[in-house]
Here is the input.
Amino acid sequence: MSGGPAATVPDSLARSRALIQRVLQNAVGRLEPSLAGVIAYHLGWRDQDGNEVDKPGGKSVRPTLTLLTAESVGGRAEDAVPGAVALELVHNFSLVHDDLMDGDRERRHRPTVWALFGSAEAILAGDALAALAYAVLLDAGDESGRTAARELTDATLEMIRGQSEDMDFESRIDVTEDEVLRMCAHKTGALIACAAALGAILGGGDDGQVAALRAFGSHVGIAFQAVDDVLGIWGAPDVTGKPAASDLRQHKKTLPVVHALAGPDAGEFAGMLSEGSLSDAELPRALEILEAAGSRQWCAEVAERHLAQALAALDGSDLAAGPAGELADIARFVVGRDF
Amino acid sequence: MSGGPAATVPDSLARSRALIQRVLQNAVGRLEPSLAGVIAYHLGWRDQDGNEVDKPGGKSVRPTLTLLTAESVGGRAEDAVPGAVALELVHNFSLVHDDLMDGDRERRHRPTVWALFGSAEAILAGDALAALAYAVLLDAGDESGRTAARELTDATLEMIRGQSEDMDFESRIDVTEDEVLRMCAHKTGALIACAAALGAILGGGDDGQVAALRAFGSHVGIAFQAVDDVLGIWGAPDVTGKPAASDLRQHKKTLPVVHALAGPDAGEFAGMLSEGSLSDAELPRALEILEAAGSRQWCAEVAERHLAQALAALDGSDLAAGPAGELADIARFVVGRDF
Here is the structure.
């Protein structure tokens, strides 16, 4: 949808994965073996039987942003590795806990941690990932490590606020578009904004550059969430790794759902979402209502608008052209994926 | 059991509660209102209906240690307030998550957070408490704030290791006394050691003083756990705020249980603990086995030994006599409580 090289996976993703992998493994290696095994499974390093896996899990978008923003302000990617690793750890802490809170049994075509190992292991694994993030970041040399840790704390608190709002919204049918966009900014935007800001901080950027890159990340995050919400309803299960229409069944107040709740069939849709979980029989009608409201198209517009704002934030902050171009590619990639 | 003023609640506990209360409230006030409400309930500030409560919950032992150790190295209690608050936040994060992981439905004579608000709220509340701890500590002025944050991270990781070991032990009957003592050092000792070390760090103590006070806290923690494990089996429910013999029913490998598993009726006891949860009918026999093995007395000796080591650690580090005396009182108080 966004033009440009959206469908190609940017090279920078593979490069950053190689840079952070060893530090990430050392961090996880600090844990008690059984807990480290749970996390190795979650991160895609091991399969369900504990055997090592060759292909890496996840796309490493967040750590890549951190390394590229460091380079974009004239720093070295190496200096930002602790930030990139901390980001990846906090992101995965949130995934492990969110899957349990949301009752999601599948991620990336595999059972989620709680579904495979139990709730207690999932809680503890998430807690460990969060603590390791600070361990990695606070060990990172000078004063910028502390500034980075504060940035990470604020982003984590914003992310928690977003998850809290998301949970509150489940029992409401009067959520406004403004509210759900703000929730996305908290739940998804904050950590991607932090990914971009951390690199700028650790790479020695000035306050203006940090702020511009934080804004870039925030808009990328909201655009990404708009795409993700569309996939959560219309995405093919073999692409998303989740059951079809899973968000809709769970009454999540995602962007398209909130949009349709202000559309032509608002009353009927609200009625469907006020009952228990949506049945298979009700799904086709729910999808009709969403189409009639133009909710899918509205999400595409939200994504386009925030992608444009993200790209605009890259201008005017005196960033190095090469890394800034790669940042733009990543933004287009995450927004354009599978659309 | 420990002689001295064990039965009297030290004045320092009430004083420190007053010092930290406002900072603690401000930290919780940063959260989304519904989540802040959950935490206000957990901390005993509100009742189940959301009404404010007058009497404070908990004994604030950990923050008191932090404030006193700051004074013991010649610093001001005020300088250590961010450390004390961070400690109280991390401690409560661990309580909220542990109650859920262990399936405990009651704490301090009230429903636990997950039992009252649900698992998802409990997970998120714990996550928020942990993140707030770093927010408070990293905002605490100078370089010592960063050193303190690293100390807190390491302690949190040790605590998580202890919880992981505790969970692993549930399915084992061959846990040794060394293993269970090490688990206690991780699960309980690490955070109390951190409480003592943080005050020394923020109060400007030298490395030797920080190490001595960390050791003091670690021994207090292990002694406390030995007492707590005795209460978990023999404590009256109206004192512990938990159901009678709750630890035993859940097959927890606490100190007395592990001791009795090496005692005269080890085979029979192991058999009882290998089945599902212990029935009411089996409880009297299990208690007989523990008595016959002298497990309760052994725990008392463990507590006495570590209390003595804690008090010894206070000597020889050139600590201010007044605060050091109060630290000794606290140590005797937490070990002597209800014994």
